[in-house]
From TrEMBL:
Domain NADPH-dependent FMN reductase-like residue range list: 3-149
The keyword Flavoprotein belongs to this UniProt entry's keyword annotation: yes
GO molecular function, one term: oxidoreductase activity
Domain of life: Bacteria
Protein name: NADPH-dependent FMN reductase
Keyword tags: Flavoprotein, FMN
């Protein structure tokens, strides 16, 4: 049975929770699932001090002793992840942002390649589409397989028409999420994703060394030699493009090392 964990950035159990509950009901009607709601406000998360020890030495050197690893473990033990947040001042809530800050080292060392991801944003008026995109970008860079998320708009109390639209959006979103959840093979990367991987791995190789956690992580994973983060058969054109991106990454990395 697939396990889904929903991380909720709302300070209370209101519109965002209700939306997620409806999403979960839809998904449960399509397959048997194990669900967990994680209300981030119930956990102890300190605010990042900016020491960058997690980036440079490793996450275990973080001076904050809080629930970060407990929450990370919940992601590790899941097949699918939802980040759900209200729109607060055109952004995720502070609670959700703090959670993302605490996990920022994963952006340097992606790992969740076999897990599905979706962002759900709930708002009163507008600005939420950009937040969905922002969360999707985080999801991609964490390594997740990202299903297109949704932004639900309505001021309370909702009209029947607004509720109908939300119900339809949540129903479609659950189908998209299920598709990623049931994926049996990992996708061939787009040119953009290939470029990001090849240029960053070259820069890490050229600029950093064994004193840095990112360098060791990439080395342990065999990423300095591999075509991509995971086993994938790149076609001729993408193989060629990959070499070009390696060349660019090498060039930029060497320039940076000189400065
Ligand atoms: C501090 C605060 C800031 C908000 N900023 C926005 C905003 O920029 N755009 C918007 O459309 N709605 C905004 N809203 C409305 C919420 O996104 C909306 O009420 C949402 O449904 C709240 O979700 P919740 O009930 O799960 O907390 C804001 C609400 C609060 C409390």
């Amino acid at each position: 049975m697939k396990k889904i964990t929903v991380f909720i950035g709302s300070p209370g159990k209101q519109a965002t929770y209700k939306a997620v509950q409806e999403f979960v009901t839809n998904l449960k009607s399509q397959m048997e699932l194990d669900f967990e709601y994680v209300f981030l406000s119930d956990y102890n998360l300190g605010s990042c001090k900016g020491c960058k020890l997690c980036f440079n030495k490793g996450e275990e050197y973080c001076p904050l002793k809080d629930d970060r690893d407990l929450l990370l473990e919940k992601i590790n033990n899941s097949d699918g992840i939802i980040f759900a947040t209200p729109n607060y001042a055109f952004n995720v809530t502070a609670i959700m942002k703090n959670f993302l800050d605490r996990l920022s080292f994963v952006l340097h060392r992606p790992r969740f390649f076999n897990k599905a991801f979706m962002a759900i944003v709930v708002q009163g008026i507008h600005g939420g589409t950009a937040i969905v995109k922002y969360l999707e970008n985080i999801g991609e860079n964490f390594g997740f397989q990202v299903a297109k998320g949704c932004c639900l708009t309505s001021l309370e109390p909702r009209t029947a028409l607004e509720q109908k639209k939300i119900t339809q959006e949540l129903s479609k979103a659950s189908v998209r999420f299920r598709k990623e959840l049931m994926r049996t093979t990992l996708p061939i990367p787009s040119f953009f994703k290939l470029m990001m991987f090849r240029m960053s791995r070259k820069s890490i190789n050229v600029i950093l060394n064994e004193n840095y956690r990112d360098y060791c992580y990439f080395k342990e994973k065999g990423w300095f030699e591999s075509d991509y983060y995971y086993d994938v058969s790149l076609g001729f054109i993408k193989k060629l493009a990959g070499r070009f991106f390696d060349f660019l990454g090498n060039f930029i990395g060497k320039q940076k090392r000189r400065t």
